[in-house]
Amino acid sequence: MTQLSLVVPMYNEQEMVPLFFARAEEVLRGHFSYEYIFVNDGSNDATLNTLKKLARQCPYVKIISLSRNFGKEAAVTAGLEAAAGQAVVILDADLQDPVELVPVFWEKFREGYENVYGQRIDRSADSFFKRFTAQAFYKVYNKVADFPMPYNAGDFRLLSRRAAQAVAALPERERFMKGLFSWVGFNSVAVPYCRRPRAAGRGKWSYWRLWNFALSGLTSATSWPLKLWTYAGMAVALFAFIFAAWIAYKKLVWGNPVSGYASLMVTILFFSGVQLITLGVIGEYLSRIFTEVKRRPAYLVDEKVNF
């Protein structure tokens, strides 16, 4: 039986395929039996053809090619569902997460841990803005989430077979994998490491995509934003009642005229803004419900190689 499955999602990584494979083979050969599951997430460059050349030479190189770009979360799910190893390692192709840690993960797995995750202790390879926003996201997420996730832990991790199957079996279409890894639980341990720069090519995550990804993570983890605006609405209503009582008191006692156009417009604009924000939060949750009730699959497979 295969001991380890390496799930590697790829999107337009033709430059990284030979670099990643050479590094992985250098590190992993001789430690345990393993297979690669490369998930081509609708690449529009030569990634798939490059992977097929590898698969012709190495029967333990397996390819799942999706029908279009479904996103990294769906690609990881496809890899987890196809993995046959006793344990599964999720690994990016850009070599920012070091392959050298995989044998360390394996040793932790043999000690009885079922969720061995890499924890970044140095992110100097990332820009200052990305480090700052990532730290802010982890803090906010862990404050409000029902099941907090380890700080500075990404998808780079080893899962036991049953933990991987548990994550893959979760029915969400809008998947936030880091949150799901925390939700399933199991015996977990961190392995600290320093994140490296990309070995080649360019990153695929723009700040806009990261922002939307963060929103998806928060709305999938907690209903706290909805509760927040319930309490905010109560507070605003209480303030409005007190303010109205104060205006009535001044009018009756001192005969002061009611505030005019400027104060009226400020009040209307303020309450309109609060209402629009509230509707936006509700809309985020409604959009998730709309996506889930359609029951479309998380991904579609176009082709499989060496399965």
Work out the strand percent: 15-25%
Question: Structural class of the helices, strands and pairings?
Answer: alpha/beta
Counted by DSSP, the helix tally is 10
Task: Compute the separation of the termini in Å.
Answer: 15 Å
What best-fitting shape do the alpha-carbon axes yield?
Answer: elongated
Give Rg in angstroms.
25 Å
Name the helicity range.
Answer: 40-55%
Q: Can you summarize the main beta sheet?
A: 8 strands, mixed
Poorly predicted sequence stretches spanning 5 or more consecutive residues? none
Strand order of the largest sheet: 7-5-6-4-1-2-3-8
Please trace the helix and strand order, writing H or E for each element: EHEHEHEHEHEHHEHHHE
Descriptive notes:
With 307 residues, this protein is of the alpha/beta class. Helix content is 51%, strand content 17%. The protein has an eight-stranded mixed beta sheet, with helices on both faces. Helix 2 links the parallel strand 2 and strand 3 (61-66). Helix 3 (72-82) crosses helix 6 (161-169) and helix 5 packs parallel to helix 8 (207-221). The model has no long low-confidence stretch (mean pLDDT 77).
Topology (SSEs and partners):
Blueprint: E1 4-10, H1 16-28, E2 34-40, H2 47-57, E3 61-66, H3 72-82, E4 87-90, H4 102-110, E5 115-122, H5 128-144, E6 153-160, H6 161-169, H7 177-184, E7 188-194, H8 207-221, H9 224-253, H10 261-293, E8 301-305
Parallel strand pairs: 1-2, 1-4, 2-3, 5-7
Antiparallel strand pairs: 3-8, 4-6, 5-6
